[in-house]
Specification:
By secondary structure, the protein is an alpha/beta fold. The protein is built from ten helices and ten strands. Strands 1, 2, 3, 4, 5, 6 and 7 form a seven-stranded mixed sheet that branches. The radius of gyration is 20 Å and the shape is globular. The structure holds guanosine-5'-triphosphate and magnesium ion.
């Protein structure tokens, strides 16, 4: 008898959702950065433990919508919590729930969706006793399956989350092969690795206006080398100069960091070529958002 559980990870931007997805799966499949709105699409991570298949869906962070891309991102969240076995709702414990989060939690709990509430980043608390009133307040307000204080970066509490999720698995066939860890195509994984490096290297508005597509990705027939051609799109001519940097220094740095991670992930030597192009105000242009693969699936 096999069991499956589908769980959507939701929460404000920067709460640590993608970090959690990576920790649950045990491989880095989702981009992580200290910048807001890192994740733009739904990313599925799969973990099969004996007869139980856990399917996690990482979603874009909740935020005030600013452009058409935001609308799509929040649409992904809405679609991903509908008809789901369970939700992991994540909050940075150094922050408070805002109205958007409270209303979403009210809806989910009144619809009887099992919600596992995570208070993440407990490593940032001066005193762990600060958690006591937080947990008391949350449990008096909402009917959660569990409230778990965790620190994803310190790998503290991850096993407890897995135990809670396992409890919610229902008798069902498995939907993915046992050894599969994500549904993302390899080209998308590669593009996201590159975008993550740019998010970490760049500041202010520049990184938010970046999209990366991998045009070709091919293993050579005569050598163990993977050739990857990527295009980095930015939304202003002035941003292009920043992405390339003085004498190409920024682009070189991003490409070099990307290549290292690509080689680790694909376990093969990588020859990476990056081009930088401008697509004015693409985050408000439906056609471009779609062509970058950022509309709801
Ligand atoms: N101190 C601390 N930092 C954490 C923890 N978990 C995640 N972070 C950091 O928080 C930042 C945001 O992490 P992400 O996993 O990208 O957050 P996210 O919720 O996926 O963000 P969006 O994709 O924008 O919604 C990164 O800098 C992480 O390293 C934690 O337990 N403690
Ligand atoms: Mg994320």
């Amino acid at each position: 008898m096999t069991k499956t559980v589908f769980v959507t990870i939701v929460g404000r931007t920067n709460a640590g959702k993608s970090s959690l997805l990576n920790a649950m799966i045990g491989e880095k499949i989702a981009s992580v950065s200290s910048k807001s709105q890192t994740t733009r699409t739904r990313i599925t991570g799969i973990k099969t433990i004996d007869d139980v298949q856990l399917v996690f869906m990482d979603t874009p962070g909740l935020h005030k919508p600013k452009n058409k891309l935001s609308d799509h991102m929040l649409g992904v969240v809405k679609d991903s919590v509908a008809d789901i076995d369970a939700v992991i709702f994540m909050m940075d414990c150094t922050k408070n729930l805002n109205e958007q989060e409270e209303s979403m939690l009210k809806n989910m709990t009144s619809e009887k969706t099992p919600v596992i509430f995570l208070l993440n980043k407990i490593d940032l608390l001066k005193m762990k006793s600060e958690l006591v009133p937080m947990i008391a307040k949350l449990s008096s307000k909402f009917d959660f399956e569990a409230i778990i204080p965790v620190s994803v970066t310190e790998n503290n509490g991850i096993d407890l989350i897995e135990q809670e999720v396992m409890k919610l698995a229902k008798e069902s066939p498995h939907f993915f092969p046992e050894d599969m860890i994500t549904d993302q195509p390899e080209k998308v994984i590669a593009a996201e690795i590159i975008r993550e490096k740019l998010l970490n290297l760049l500041n202010e508005e520049v990184p938010h206006g970046i999209a990366v597509t991998v045009e070709t990705m091919k293993e050579r027939s005569d050598k163990d080398i993977l050739d990857i051609d990527a295009v980095i799109y930015c939304e202003k001519e002035s941003h292009k100069g920043i992405v390339i940097g003085k004498g190409g220094s920024m682009l070189k740095k991003a490409a070099s960091l990307s290549r290292q991670e690509l080689e680790n992930f694909f376990r093969i030597k990588v020859n990476l070529k990056c081009w930088v192009k401008v697509k004015e105000d693409w985050r408000n242009r439906e056609g471009l958002i779609r062509s970058f693969g950022l509309t709801e699936k």
